[in-house]
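Q: Convert this sequence to structure tokens.
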Amino acid sequence: MYNITYMKQNLSNQINICKHNTPVAVLSPITQKPKIKTEDIVEQIMEFNKDKTLAPYTIKELRDEGRR
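A:
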């Protein structure tokens, strides 16, 4: 049988599940990450790729190499 203990830690609810007084699992609420706008992500990707090229290769050469 499992013993479920409710604890208050770090201002968040936490549930410890114990078997024979040995903790076997901890249930805690997920933390919300700040949402990033899609436009910001696209802008970061575009900035990252700005100076990067595939030179001296062409798309066809890379495609054919991947097919081998």
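The longest helix spans residues 38-49.
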